[in-house]
Every structure is written in structure tokens, then in C-alpha cells.
Design brief:
- The chain is α+β, with helices and mostly antiparallel strands.
- The chain folds into two domains: 5-159, no CATH class; 163-263, OB fold (Dihydrolipoamide Acetyltransferase, E2P).
- The chain is built from five helices and twelve strands.
- The strands form two sheets. Strands 2-3-1-4-5 form a five-stranded antiparallel β-sheet.
- Strand 9 and strand 10 form a beta hairpin.
- The longest helix has 23 residues, at 22-44.
- The radius of gyration is 30 Å and the shape is elongated.
- The two termini are 46 Å apart.
- Residues 254-258 have low confidence and may be disordered.
Length: 270
């Protein structure tokens, strides 16, 4: 694999007579090095490259970095420098869909641009000393990073499994606890045997006498469950019946009892 090189130059603000603060330069160098290390792991499934400074210009914020095979018997399969530079170009051009497996580099790219037009003017990032590959990291680039981050977050949200929203009949295993017995509609909560989550329950006065024996003991609870689309667990249960279980009750006997049976007015949350 041909040796690759990346250079970057931090330009100071005009109001600071174009000088570059040492801490700003160190922060940007750190962002580049961390990005290269991460790109190496992403492209080579582990560390296979070393990154060395081959050029450092006195009196400026310029540095050149080359990659070399690390002390390992496994040769690199991909260039970390190429991967990081491609990700920077992709973000700058707004082609988030082309990031593919490089989205993990966004935190380092964001760190590289942070403070543009405030703590420094801009940064030029160049691949293999070819000016045609130059990317300007400035306040516009920072906006592009924000858009990329937002787009990836939205995409991740859409990929999450869709949660049910509506009312359905369900059967659960848990222990009922009384909360408020006043009035015709009473309040309790169910502590699930699996996981210990608590679900609020209501039940009417006409079934109270049948429900009471199931309080404070493990029971099989049948209910209408209200799902809000925000959680896989019901937001509230309307109790239909509750039957105390034997101490050796086995959940395997209930296989399929937790399947949602939607009513005609249900919808699914995106």
C-alpha cells in the first residue's frame, strides 16, 4: 500500500495578527490524530498503522503526518488517512449518505472544526500535498457537521423498531399492589415478575372482589393494555381478571401470551 500523507494548517484570526494560539493548535492536532487512529481501527478492524509527524513548520500552524505499518505481522488493508480525509470531504459536501461506516469519525471531525471564526480563522486539510484535495474547515464546515449529525440521528431513530400505540388485550405475570381503593374505579400497580417494572392498573368496583385475592402474590393478570408508542411496556392496564399462581408456575406454559392483539382503532408509532 502506497504511503499516504495528510497535512493541515491552522490559520489565525486577522484580529490576532494571524497568530495561532498554541492550545488551539494542540487541540486540532489531537483531533486529527484521534481521527486517524479511529479510522485505522474502522478500516483495518484493529490497529495496523502508526502515524508520524514528518513535517512541522516553525512560526505557523502547519503539520504533515504520514502513516506507516505498525509493529504487527498483519499488513494494513486500508489507509486511515484516506478514510479520515474521505469522511471530511463527505461532510463538507453534505453527502451524509456516503459516510457509510465512517460515522464514528464525526466526533473527531466536529472537534476539528469547533471554534472556527472564533478561536481561529480556518484550517486547510490536504491529502498527499495535492491542492485539489484541500478542504476548508471553517464556520460553514461546522454547519455541515451539524447537519450531518442531525441527519444520522434521524436515520438512527427511523431504524429503531416501531413501537405499538393503542389498546390491546394482554396477559402478564406479576404481583399486584393496592394503591387507592376509593370510588368505583380503583388504582393499583403490577410489579412484573420478569424485570420488576411497575405498571399502573385500574379496575372497576364490580370485579374488585375477584381481584383482591391476587394482591401481594404472584398472579396471572389479564387486562386491556394501553400503549403510548414510547415504550414496549403498557402505560396503563385495565384489569379484567387476576389469578394467583402456584409457586412452581413456569412462564414457558404461557408462551405466546404476551403477543399484542390490536383493536380496530390502534396505530403504530414511528
Amino acid at each position: 500500500m502506497a504511503r499516504k500523507k495528510i497535512t493541515f494548517c491552522v490559520h489565525g484570526l486577522a484580529v490576532e495578527k494571524n497568530t495561532v494560539d498554541a492550545s488551539v493548535f494542540a487541540h486540532k492536532l489531537s483531533a486529527i490524530v484521534r481521527g486517524l487512529a479511529r479510522a485505522d481501527k474502522l478500516g483495518n478492524h484493529g490497529r495496523r498503522l502508526d502515524f508520524v509527524i514528518t513535517e512541522l513548520r516553525m512560526g505557523s500552524g502547519f503539520v504533515g503526518i504520514e502513516e506507516r505499518q505498525a509493529k504487527t505481522n498483519l499488513p494494513p488493508m486500508a489507509s486511515g488517512i484516506d478514510k479520515l480525509h474521505n469522511a471530511i470531504v463527505t461532510v463538507a459536501n453534505g453527502n451524509v449518505a456516503h459516510l457509510n461506516g465512517s460515522s464514528d469519525l464525526l466526533p473527531m471531525i466536529r472537534s476539528l472544526g469547533k471554534g472556527a471564526s472564533k478561536n481561529f480563522s480556518h484550517i486547510d486539510v490536504v491529502l498527499d500535498d495535492d491542492s485539489e484535495t484541500a478542504v476548508r474547515v471553517d464556520d460553514f464546515f461546522v454547519e455541515q457537521v451539524g447537519l450531518a449529525t442531525s441527519a444520522l440521528t434521524t436515520h438512527a431513530d427511523r431504524k429503531q423498531r416501531r413501537l405499538f400505540k393503542g389498546r390491546s388485550k394482554t396477559t402478564l405475570d406479576g404481583t399486584l399492589k393496592a394503591v387507592d381503593h376509593r370510588g368505583p374505579t380503583k388504582l393499583a400497580f403490577l410489579v412484573l415478575t420478569a424485570g420488576g417494572a411497575e405498571i399502573e392498573c385500574t379496575y372497576n368496583e364490580h370485579i374488585a372482589s375477584a381481584i383482591v385475592p391476587a394482591f401481594d402474590v404472584r398472579s396471572r393478570v389479564e387486562a386491556w393494555a394501553h400503549y403510548d408508542g414510547q415504550s414496549a411496556l403498557p402505560r396503563r392496564l385495565e384489569l379484567i381478571s387476576a389469578t394467583p399462581l402456584k409457586k412452581d408456575a413456569d412462564l414457558k406454559r404461557w408462551k405466546g401470551a404476551f403477543q399484542i392483539q390490536p383493536s380496530d382503532t390502534d396505530e403504530w408509532a414511528d
